[in-house]
Structure formats: structure tokens, C-alpha cells
Amino acid sequence: MENIQYDGHVHTPFCPHGSNAPLEEYIDKAITLGYRSISFCEHAPLPARFPDPTPEKDSSMLSSDLEAYIKAIQDVRERYKNDISILTGLEIDFIEGFETETKAFLDEYGPVLDDAILSVHFINTKNAYGLLDYSAENFEALSKQAGGADQLVRRYYETVLLSISADLGKYKPRRLGHVSLVRKFRKAFDLPSDEHWLEAILAAAKKAELSLDINGAGVVKPLCGEPYPPAAIIEKAERMGIPLMYGSDAHHPDGLGQGRERLPEVKLGMPGG
């Protein structure tokens, strides 16, 4: 798919596990690609009492950087206003058991955001949290902790469904991020069929009037090789009338546009479009 005019899932130099390339490089690349709009959605700070399970403790933006992040995007939005529409967004983690903290964060910062994505990265298995997409080795360990790959897949999709039904207040994000992220290492593991789970997510998203992040990052992951969600699910979502928005999930300017060649021909939208 080449006719993409909006990227709704772009990271920034404020991401500890990403690139330190300046915002301007992302924007210039978006303009080169012919985009009309770009949405910066950095990983929002995690709840204060949530222990980041990664060795580097770098899953999200620091709370101390949040105000600077918002100001930086506001500054480039003004400078580039005649060239491209730039949105201030965040990727909000839905973490089971931390709904109250997440709602409080959204109540505080939601009014200054143009856009937001609700994603599941952290899975609670047997009262311990793990990061689903850190590495294949970590995925294997998390599977064992959950009682097997079948149980981990089940827990992931249960958590996505919880994110859809959760009361996170008036500023709850209206777009679901990479809803098949559990498939990131699918070529390395014997994962169970998850079509019924994805269909349940589509039904819940439709009922809740949420849109989907059509995420190209999985295409370039060597152990995945497909978008999040897979093409057949994207096509079914379109038939159901669920709004779809392309997201590169770029953590470096070179990542803008990634995965487009493996997306089915569906109608993609943009906020307000």
C-alpha cells in the first residue's frame, strides 16, 4: 500500500530505547514521503509504583521529561505548520491492576493531547509482570512463567479485551495499538491459533467505537514478518466499519513508512479525517 498520508504512531528522541535523532528528522522524512499529518505518540511514563521489568528500565519516557516532550512537539508544530500537520500524542500502556493511576494520568494530561494510543506491552502472569515484546528469549521465559505459550497468548488477549472495557475516564485513548503484538516472535514458537481472539477484539472495538492502529513494525521484525494485526484481520475490521489508521511505530526516522508494502488495500484514516 503506497497511498498513505498519515502516520499515527511515531516515537521520538524522548524514548529511552529508541533513537536520539531530533524531531526535525522525523518530520522531514514524513514530508518526503508525502504525508499530510504525523502523530508523535511517545511511550507515556509508567505508573510510579509499577516496577519496569526490563533490565535497562527503559520502557517509557521519564516523568521528568514529559513537559519538555510536549513543549518540543508544540514548537515544531508551529515551525512546520505550513508544511505538515503535527499532533501531540502519547502511547498509553494499559497495565492490569493500574487502571486508577492510568486514569489519573489521563485526567491530568489528556486535555493537552491531540492524539493517543492504548497499547498492551506488559502481561501479568501469576502475580508477576513481564514485557511481552522485549526479546525472543524473554518471551520464552514469560511463556514458562505463564504456564506455556498457550497461556501467555490467552493472557495477552484477555488483557487487550480488558483495556477495551476499562473505565479510564473521558480522555481514554480511542485507538488500540498493535493488537496482535503477541505474534512478534511467532516464527520462533509454536503459538496457538489466535483468530478467535482477534475476532473477539474486533467485536469489542466495534462496540466501544474504537479505531485500530494498523502497525507496520511487525513486517520488519525478522521473527514476525506481518503487520499488527495480520492482513486478514485488517480486512475484516474494514468490512466491520472499524476505523483504521496506519502507524509505522518508528523509533528512528528511517522507520517511517515501514511495513507499507505488506498492508492490504484498505481505507486508512487520520484523526478528524
TrEMBL record:
What catalytic activity does the UniProt entry give for this protein? L-histidinol phosphate + H2O = L-histidinol + phosphate
Any one GO biological process: L-histidine biosynthetic process
Which Pfam families does the UniProt entry name for this protein? PHP
Name the top EC class: hydrolase
Q: Where is the composition biased (Basic and acidic residues)?
A: 251-265
Which InterPro entries does the entry mention? Histidinol_P_phosphatase_HisJ (IPR010140), PHP_dom (IPR004013), Pol/histidinol_Pase-like (IPR016195)
Choose one Gene Ontology CC annotation of this protein and give it.
cytoplasm
Q: What is its EC number?
A: 3.1.3.15
What keywords appear on the UniProt entry?
A: Amino-acid biosynthesis, Histidine biosynthesis, Hydrolase
User: PHP domain location, by residue?
Assistant: 7-215
Q: Which domain of life is it from?
A: Bacteria
Q: Where is this region: Disordered?
A: 251-273
Q: Which Gene3D superfamilies match?
A: Metal-dependent hydrolases
The record's similarity note reads: Belongs to the PHP hydrolase family. HisK subfamily.
What is the name of this protein? Histidinol-phosphatase
Q: Which organism is it from?
A: Salicibibacter kimchii
Give the lineage.
Answer: Bacteria, Bacillati, Bacillota, Bacilli, Bacillales
